[in-house]
Amino acid sequence: MNPIFADLPTTVFEVMSQMARETGAINLGQGFPDDPGPLDVRQKAAEAVVSGWNQYPPMMGLPELRQAVADHYRHHQGLTIDPQQEVMITSGATEALAGALFSLIKPGDEVVLFQPMYDAYLPLVRRAGGVPRFVTLRPPHWRFTEEDLAAVFSDRTRVVLLNNPLNPAASVFPREDLDLLGRFCAKFGATVVSDEVWEHVMFDGQKHLSVLAVPSLRERSVKIGSAGKIFSLTGWKVGFVVAAPAIMKVLSKAHQFLTFTTPPNLQAAVAYGLAKDDAYFADMRAELQRARDLFHAGLDAAGFQVLPSAATYFINVDLASAGITDDVAFCKALVRDHGVAAIPVSAFYAETPVTSVVRFCFAKKDETLTGALDRLSQVFAKAA
Length: 384
Prior knowledge:
The chain is α/β, with parallel strands linked by helices. It has helices spanning 3-6, 12-23, 39-51, 63-77, 93-104, 121-127, 146-152, 175-188, 227-230, 245-256, 264-274, 278-301, 327-338, 366-376, 379-383; strands at 26-27, 87-90, 110-115, 131-136, 157-163, 191-195, 221-226, 239-243, 305-306, 314-318, 340-341, 343-344, 357-361.
């Protein structure tokens, strides 16, 4: 068996979820919302599966969805995209990531990764034959410097894998960081694979800045989006890939031999959803921001050092000030002793991890969050 996958341990996500199931704990570990998603979008999918086309759709995606993706990004992010040559639909963002990495990496190529990172990144890079080079980000700002990039870029660097907004840090890389990255990529001839699935889940009035809006990165980047994150429909697995034609030509070949296509009824519903008026997207962000603020205030009142949450479904606490430096042991005790499941952020590092930060998902109903806060209020009270 392939050791890259055969030797992978059980993920901490499954460990914590299993503990939550066994103990009846409130599970704030897994990153999915309680909300079922917009009714009108779900109804469009139902109508399309009953009355629409259910055979193979075009490999690159339904034309109306590819056009909707281009229109959506023009309206919301100011991007000019050719739907015929620069847009492809995939079966979720993870397939898009896999296809991009398999397309762009040759065995022995070096790949720059920013940790903490989504857990699929490293196995996919290694399966493609890439050699990982890590930039380690640390709280509270989770930023990288010119010195960080100089330490990992070389003449063998071919791909940079970026997640912006960043899960699990719940942070956003500013324009100056993307400009800095663009200068290094231009100097060394590297391509950026930019996981931007959280592009609509940003708070406090922030606007998403895609790598495609950075001139030095426009022709050397792959932008990946997700309908699952935009519409809180994580089970649908409909992803968007946008790249310059020369890159897309190769990406499409990998997609052809991974999933080939994506359910046409879901594509039709997503095309409808992407054209929804601005109020939907504003209301979605406002509701999540309200839940974030409720949970932040409760954590703060319970004595946790809460880190900023600028985006995503997540909020982190840093336990270092409480003298706690083993986030895995803390999370296991939290489930066992207090009935709340969270995720240790050290699980998102491949080396030299931060071991004092714990991630909670706040994209839940108020009663779930307040129930968890009641239990969390006892963590430091009992310790005292």
